[in-house]
Amino acid sequence: MIARQYSVPMPGRFFPDSVVTVMKDGKEMTDTVWHKVANISLQNQLGQTVNLDQLKGKVVVIDFFFTHCASICPILTKNMRHLQDGLKQRDNMKGVDTNFVQFLSLTVDPAHDSVPTIKKYADRYGINSDVWWLLTGPKKTIYDFALNELKLGLQDSVSVDSNFVHTDYIALLDKDRVIRGYYHGTDTAAVARLADDLVFIMLEKDRKRKPALFGELRPLMVPIIVILLGTALGVVYFSRKPKKTNTSI
């Protein structure tokens, strides 16, 4: 991963594909070409055919689930829901459109999880289809994406293989579809860190733009920091387990 070069703890990039050497102002310079996640086309809970190319300019948060899972999936989905609610775009208190994030949950059991089935699951968990797609489609397409594009097997070799993907890892993609992090979605602290990282990435300076970019964003910094802190604290608060009451005498 790259060294951090920012005043905030920017998440690094994963999986360099190649190194390109160019001449600039008479000087030889090298630049790393990072693995860019390929496009994928699936059906969402509304029965619409959607793809990653539609999400140009967005930060993308991806996890995997199946609707009849009784172990990690309900916890994972609830924590993703806390992120969704913490970043809801019509929050007058924050005053910033947070529609820069798109959540994707891909079923690993598409033979069972038809469009009506994932729609029912989405309704049960209060999933907003404007910012969060539950996706189903051909199993090979989904598994190739998990293994070859998101490279989940390199992060979780125990729970991820070509036969069944059953992991709590959440992957974070930046606006260029470069992988910027993996987070245990059943772990409150990890999800809070994800909440921080996705906002940092949204503020990340585009190297192709002029340095004035941050100057233009400065008026938005206060409400954006409120979003970041509010989301992280919300995830921690709503995900914590209730304390057990000692009823013994």
Describe what this molecule looks like in 3D.
With 249 residues, the chain is α/β, with parallel strands linked by helices. Helix content is 32%, strand content 21%. The protein contains 7 helices and 9 strands; from the N terminus they run βββββαβαβααββααα. It has helices spanning 72-86, 115-124, 139-149, 152-155, 188-203, 213-217, 221-239; strands spanning 16-24, 27-34, 41-43, 49-51, 59-65, 101-107, 132-135, 169-173, 179-184. The strands form 3 sheets. It has a 5-stranded mixed beta sheet with strand order 7-6-5-8-9. A two-stranded antiparallel ribbon has the order 1-2. Helix 5 packs antiparallel against helix 7 (221-239).
Key words describing this protein structure:
7 helices; disordered C terminus; alpha/beta; Glutaredoxin; 21% strand; two-stranded antiparallel sheet; 9 strands; 249 residues
